[in-house]
Structure formats: structure tokens, C-alpha cells
Amino acid sequence: MAGSLKYFRYRSDAGVDYSINIDESNANATVGGVALCLPRTAAHPLLSGRTTKRYLLATLVSNPKIKRKFWVGNPAAIPQILAGSAMLAGVYPLSTDVAVAPVVWSISAYRGEKTGIAPAFNITAGDTGLTDGTASLDA
HSE (CB half, 13 Å, CA atoms) of 130? Predict the structure, then answer.
């Protein structure tokens, strides 16, 4: 993380909007013309600690030694990522007053969202029949 932090909107796989505080230069990256993160339009709740955000890993085409991690808060960018579309993002400047022109990055990995949501409670399931000393739901 080298740039300024700013709140952006993260839309989960369930379609719920959250606020995430991430590096502004990484959030402004585009894949196939689609922004990786959406601008925050309201005071959305913060993302739960039980959810791991989507991200991609990329290397700079002109210098493969430069690698970065980009959060993917916009689900519309996922088909572009999976299709192998070109990714454009700025390279960190040497000083803060230099304008950063987007350059081409090569996506090396993509990781989807993970949530810690418990499965639905099955009230119709009976006991397993093991003698563990607990009462069955059927009793």
C-alpha cells in the first residue's frame, strides 16, 4: 500500500453493499474498462471480519518484478478478469505531485470471496443415532 486510503463500496456475492477502506490508486484500476471498485454512494456498513474480500494479483508488464494485490469490489469486473481482459492501473510515482498514467498489468491470480456464513438450520433432521448422551430433535 503506497497511496492514500479512501472508502470505496464493496458489493458482496450476495449483492449487499459494504464500505471498505483501501488504497485509492489500486481501487481506481480497471479491467476491460470496468472499475475494480465502486465509489461509495452512502454510509454502507463495514465489511464483516468473517468475510474475505475478492482480490487479484498482478505484475507490471514492463517490469515483472513489480507486483501488487488489487481488491475487487465490483462484481461486474469478474467476467472481465476471467476472460483475460487487459488491466490498467497506475504505477506508484516517485513523488506525490507526479500524475500517474495507467499502464498495462498482467493478472497472475484471482481469488473469489469467502464468507463465514453458517449453513441453514435443518429443523427436520433427526439425531444420528450415536449414543453420545444428547437428546434427539425427534424426542
Answer: 3
Beta sheet of 17-23, edge-to-edge order:
17-23, 5-11, 38-39
DSSP 3-state of 58: strand
- The single residue listed with the C-alpha cell 498482467 is 106
Residue 65: how many CB atoms within 10 A of its CB?
Answer: 6
∠ at Cα 58 (101, 74), nearest 5°?
80
The 3-state DSSP class for residue 84 equals coil
> Beta 102-111 vs 87-90: how paired, if at all?
antiparallel
Note the Cα 15 to chain centre separation in Å. 13
Distance CA 41, CA 19 (A): 10
d(CA 43, CA 19): 7
Q: Please state the pTM of the whole predicted model.
A: 0.75
The per-residue pLDDT for range 67-111, each reduced to its tens digit, is 999 999 999 999 999 998 989 988 876 544 445 678 899 999 999
